């Protein structure tokens, strides 16, 4: 699985603050057996974020694009809008599950506006900006990661359906 990682942060992009979420996402992807092909840090700018998402999905053809940051209620938090602008289809269940996992830990998780969906054959997920939230959201998504990526790529076995088909043959 090929993965691109984007940290969205004005302060990290300006070199005023260290990017803590990007390296953590790399660690989590590699622990899951994925290959990180690209990591970037960009400011909270809708057009710049959308351009990055188009690049990694269309030209780079990664299986999974993860963003961290820019999902809150602040005026410059525009990652969800940038993501929605490039998606072919939303995957609301993923975003709902990520928020639900956070809500089990803190009521502030309901303030996240992160979205998930598909562009061409790339699954795109918006994670929150804090390393703690990134880890919690990743842990919630990890059990379905491989199946989600396989399904977006046009595969994705369905054990229950496949077993029923075999029994009726």
Topology of this protein?
Elements: E1 2-8, H1 10-13, H2 21-31, E2 35-42, H3 46-59, E3 64-68, H4 79-86, E4 89-90, H5 92-103, E5 116-119, E6 122-127, H6 131-141, H7 145-152, H8 159-168
Parallel strand pairs: 1-2, 1-3, 3-6
Antiparallel strand pairs: 4-5, 5-6
Helix pairs in contact: 2-6, 3-4, 5-6
Compact description:
The protein is an alpha/beta fold.
Rg from alpha-carbon coordinates: 16 Å
Span between termini: 33 Å
DSSP strand content: 15-25%
Number of strands: 6
Characteristic key phrases:
169 residues; alpha/beta; Molybdenum Cofactor Biosythetic Enzyme, Chain A; six-stranded mixed sheet; 6 strands; globular; disordered C terminus
Question: Could you walk me through the main structural features you see in this protein, from its secondary elements to its overall organization?
Answer:
The protein has one domain (2-168): Molybdenum Cofactor Biosythetic Enzyme, Chain A. It is an alpha/beta fold and 169 residues long. The chain is globular, with a radius of gyration of 16 Å. Helix 2 packs parallel to helix 6 (131-141), helix 3 (46-59) packs across helix 4 and helix 5 (92-103) packs across helix 6 (131-141). The protein has helices at 10-13, 21-31, 46-59, 79-86, 92-103, 131-141, 145-152, 159-168; strands at 2-8, 35-42, 64-68, 89-90, 116-119, 122-127. The protein starts with a strand and ends with a helix. The longest helix is centred in the N-terminal third of the chain and has 14 residues, at 46-59. The protein is built from eight helices and six strands; from the N terminus they run βααβαβαβαββααα.
């Amino acid at each position: 699985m090929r993965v691109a990682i984007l940290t969205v942060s004005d302060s990290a992009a300006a070199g005023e603050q260290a990017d803590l979420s990007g390296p953590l996402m790399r660690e989590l992807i590699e622990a899951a057996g994925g290959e990180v092909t690209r990591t970037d840090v960009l400011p909270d700018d809708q057009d710049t974020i959308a351009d990055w998402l188009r690049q990694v999905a269309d030209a780079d053809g990664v299986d999974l694009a993860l963003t961290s940051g820019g999902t809150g209620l602040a005026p410059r938090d525009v990652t969800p809008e940038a993501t929605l602008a490039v998606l072919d289809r939303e995957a609301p269940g993923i975003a709902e599950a990520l928020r639900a996992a956070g809500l089990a830990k803190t009521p502030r998780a309901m303030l996240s506006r992160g979205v998930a969906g598909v562009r061409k054959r790339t699954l795109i997920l918006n994670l929150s900006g804090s390393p703690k939230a990134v880890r919690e959201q990743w842990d919630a998504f990890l059990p379905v990661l491989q199946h989600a990526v396989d399904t977006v790529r046009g595969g994705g076995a369905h054990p229950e359906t496949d077993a029923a088909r075999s029994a009726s043959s």
